[in-house]
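User: For a reading group we're discussing how well predicted structures match intuition. Take ribose-phosphate diphosphokinase. Before you show the prediction, I'll give you the sequence so everyone sees exactly what went in.
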Amino acid sequence: MSQFEPDAKIFACSQSIHLAEKIASHYGVELGKVTFSHYSDGEFQPSFEESIRGIRVFLVCSTFPSADNLMELLLMIDAAKRASARHITAVIPYFGWARQDRKDKPRVPIGAKLVAKLLESAGATRIMTMDLHADQIQGFFEKPVDHLYASTIFLPYVKSLGLDNLTIASPDMGGSKRAYAYSKFLNSDVVICYKQRKQANVIDTMELIGNVEGRNVILVDDMVDTGGTLAKAADMMLAKGALSVRAICTHAILSGDAYEKIEKSAILELIVTDSIPLKRESSKIKVLSCTELFADVMHMVQNNKSISDKFII
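Assistant: Thanks. Here is the predicted 3D structure of ribose-phosphate diphosphokinase, as structure tokens, for the group to look at:
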């Protein structure tokens, strides 16, 4: 690195330290030192314990619940701005609040747009994230967004399984584009689940569009929250003659009794990334790390190189 372009530094929010340590190791630097002071009422204050003047800082923070994770990131961005960082890249492997990307009924917020504005107002000059719930969220930002795809991690693993009669499935209509992209790369069939909800996280009905008899099915989605959709879809597909059902979900939110649902379901294997730390281990859950992908792209961004070769689909 030339004297005119100092190297970058990587810092992490408190709930993403393990992920950030692995990213920093792949990047080739030590994770930067940041401390958090806590008041008795729950308020907290981040402090960078080393100079960041005139350099690019990467702030690693998945904004899964609680809202403290997002607040930590906003405060760290503001602190970096006031400490004269040259560039502030918010690295958000899991972009929370992304399900609120539109008004689906009257008098509700568009939470994803609000979060985008908060990040920009705080001082972020670039956003780096992976498998957004909706691609159009990129348009909520006026700053550059590097939207990475976990397909670069998942597809080599799927190919290594050597499954015959492979069918890619989308658990809902909204994920059909993702399913078709996977199927095109794997040269497989596609089926789609059509579901209706009574309310958030509660499925009313589910029907299958397509044939899975005698097929090895892989459900593909951007996240798994309660696990209800995957469990119901897997049971339905086995009842319709599928040989096996696996699931690929980038972000393992796994709230409530999701672990129990997955373990009791017909799903043979749930494959996720480490964008969100698992609450506990499960024999059915396989974690593939996204850290090398992020470290490589961070290097490219720092050195003003194209990242297009990091996109498989």
